[in-house]
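# nightly structure sweep
# worker-07 picked up a monomer target from the shared queue
# config: single-sequence mode, recycle default, output format = structure tokens
# input follows
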Amino acid sequence: MNWARLHAEDRIPGIDLARGMAVVGMFAAHLLWITPLVWSDPGTWTGIVQGRSSILFATLAGVSLGVMAGGARRPSPAELPALRARLVYRSLLLWLLGVVLLGLGIPVYIILPAYAILFLLALPFLPLRPRQVLIVAGGIGLLAPFLQAWVDALPWWETGSGRMAAWLLGWHYPFPVWIAFVLAGLGLARTDIRRLRTQLAMLGAGIALAVLGYGLDAVSGTRDVPDDGAFWDVLWTAEPHSSGLLEVIGSGGFAIAAISVCLLACRTPLIWITLPLRATGSMPLTAYVTQLLLWAVLASIGLGTTGDLGAFRDTAPFWPLTIATITGCTVWALLIGRGPLERAMTHLPARRSTSSGRSIPRDDAHRP
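# output follows
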């Protein structure tokens, strides 16, 4: 049994829990019919997964990157070359895996190509202090949506080469904006998220940002105005997957608050109750890819095509696939250990810094 591994000193159970929640959230966004979220109507609350699950994943990727790179202890100059080499190699594998999944023809946006690019963009920030990383993340979060709104309006995206570029870059998760979420996670990891003080500060900051972003969206009445594609309509919105300024602020804050809630919950007896979700969160890549592969197989057999999203949702696949994934991940984690894809990703070159002889920080516990 690998019970001890899920509670090892080098793991952060709250991060596993947050990733498990993000996995389930992405399953829901893919597999459920979801109505637009209206906070005053509990019947629409499943809409909370739209956009926020993937932003939570991106923020957690930054946290995992920071923990992998030493957590509160920044990597030394001697450690950086080997660490960066591993991350470049891993990014290449993630991108290739993402392209393979795109080839399945499943009508959802595959996040892995975007992840690969985001990890590469985060490399220069690994040696920075936490405050420096968080300032950069905040600056990008405030400025990049202006650039994004302009870039998205270019007619080139409607050409064949533009559509191919969007496909290969994972442009539904555009890196000019989404690097802010990864850097926010990296900065939080650098502040030592194991400390109660840090977790409470994250909760307060996350709630404040969420209230600011969603509050401005509500009082602006942007949802009541038809979106004609004008620059301001694209920029000043908190709509899921818009990469609008208010989504960056609101959903970025939501992700930070959600991570802090999971960290705080794992300080209580909930750490035992949430074991299945934590086991799933310990192998998020395996869970994500398995869901898509099962989708492709089931849709091909039952519908004769993988491309009919509505018909597949009508078969009510959410609960069977979610329960099967959580159960499978729990059994695997307890009987075998690391997820198969997570295990495969560790067979990388440059595991040690040859110049200093010091081990690169282990990423067994929290790889993106």
